[in-house]
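User: structure tokens for this one?
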Amino acid sequence: MIDIKDQELERREILKEYRNLLRNSKKHINNQDKGAIRSAFEMALEAHSGMRRKSGELYIFHPLAVANICAAEIGLGSTSIICALLHDVVEDTEITLDDIQAKFGDKVANIIDGLTKINGLVGKTNSVQAENFKKIILTMASDVRVILIKMADRLHNMRTLDSMSRTGQLKIASETLTLFAPLAHRLGLYSIKSELEDLSLKYTEPNIYKSISQNLQDTKAARNKFIKTFCEPIDLKLKELKIDFEIKGRPKSIYSIYNKIKKQSITFDEVYDLFAIRIIVDAPIEVERSDCWRVYSAITAIYNPNPLRLRDWISVPKSNGYEALHTTVMSPSGKWVEIQIRSRRMDSIAERGLAAHWKYKEGQTLAKDDVLNEITDENIEKWLKKIRETLENPETNAVEFLDDFRLNLFSEEIIVFTPKGELKKLPFNSSVMDFAFDIHTEVGKRLIGAKVNKRFVPFNYILKNGDQVEILTAKTAHPEESWLGYVSTAKAKSKIKEFIREEKRLIIQKGKEELEKLVATSNLKFNNDVIARISSFLKISNIPELYFNLGQDIINPKQILEAVEFIEKAEKLGKGYKENLINQDYDQLINYSVIDKPDMVEVGGHLNLEYSFAKCCNPIPGDDIFGFITTDEIKIHRTNCPNGIKLMSQYGNRIVRTKWTVGQSKNLQTYPVGIKIEGIDGLGIVSQITDIISKELKVNMQSLYINSNAGIFEGNIILFIYDLEHLENLIQKLKTIDGAQNVVRYDVNEDFKVI
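Assistant:
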């Protein structure tokens, strides 16, 4: 029970947040907008009256926080702020969409409807999150404000994730990392993208997050001193050139540092680019490009640049509107330093994404129509058009769509040209076939060959920056299943799969009609029971496959008639066809390790299912783990397992809380763990490694591979370890070997499928 004093404190805090909202939005609204925002606030306040979040705070603080993010961090106008305040009322309260339409008009009602559909989805498939995300993208393609408000909603949920259960934290953080952070990246919301990634890491890998965060704090003073010394000559030179500018030195995000450590198998101390220098030029739009190049010229006159690390996104901006010059130069102390050069306009777009982009494009603030009402920007419109094309086929599998879509969200871009010199932007690693489908679906479907820079190339030729591409077509050509191995873009994959599905559907229909005619020559009825018996006789696993094989002439009418004759005889003899015909040994879909594991793991939810440990990440006692419900058991994954993160984000309803049993005794069970060791080669390096493993620590090895080349050695060892503490002791011992530079754990991955 909340007493009167606490209620008064809460009331004051609500008013304080509301006033913050008005302050944050004052650049984007007029007096009329202010009145509409107040009406929306009062409606939300009354609708959510008495409701509280899991943290215990009043629910109204959530829509207020989302609205503040929209106003202050994304820079949206009155329409979006009103929608943010009301984004949960239709789903959670008595207020209807008609009520909102009557009070605020069609525009607000349509956006609220989109947000409500996203929030209220009840998954009816085995992939709740994938289906939901597909729906989000469908909604976004009609009004991008829906996803911008949803992004603000997700950011606030991540900022307040402490009150959730551990299972809930893992599910939401993984979903955020795999879906919302890439989407923020594509929409140009770099600040939000970085924060979403950092917060996701905080909950999926809390120890790593704390370690990197603490290391950044410990090195802050030395880093600031280095930045000050490094920037002094640049500062003097730019002032001499009478350029108006601002220099910022800021550390890289925790997540980006973690990614470097993980991908390059290095320590925190070995990450050379812990920070970036940003130089922001204050210049009119007509001279901002030339001023940025003047700054670049001044810097490279002071410090030697790395010619391979120049990125010019000023001449050709990224598809999400990002513009900047990036270069990496060598400091006097021998450290590489990344420098980003932007105008004030470019910096605003980089931080706030779409809203800032249209603000500058239209040459006005977002006061009246939110500017986002009509999407006019060419790059974003092209991207949204690609989304709509990807979603045109309603049969598109949600998980396939999600995988393809996410790959395209984060991919870097290349610039290529048509034979007439038209510029095209494609994701990095695109092939000539991707280019053909990007030109037009029919061009892709009729592809028979391609020329790059006037030379013939195969379908799988990977395009490079500056390539000029000519596509050769023929009316008789059509997609084949092998084409899927030649493409990487979502559009190309979607169109090829769509064609193959339609072709397969026609073949299946043809096979079904032929089978019906053949069965009609007997005394049997054409029904599912008889068709299943025929499939079993021919050792075909399902009915559609039977139709397809017959339609493709993989099996012939004679084989069908033999099966029909056998079934007729079996029925006359009165023998059970199941005993005679169905005796199939199905291969297991997932290959997991089988371990004797009495009470090793405690599984939440009181589920009456067996469990086993996933080979894709090989968890050991001490690892942070979770359980995933399959068709007949629970698979235990590490929370940082790439497959595990995918499962948590796409199949959140099948995640269960798990933990290692307290007091687990050693010497009962060992687990396969991979260790990679690298360093400077020397005499007896192999014996030093094996002595520590086998003689000193008495650890059994499954395999040992050491390769030496030009004075450097690299070893991959699979060992049988008791628990995480045992593993860490072993790694520390191996680091003491003369010449050892890097010793890390790696996953002993197996093929991975979801059932």
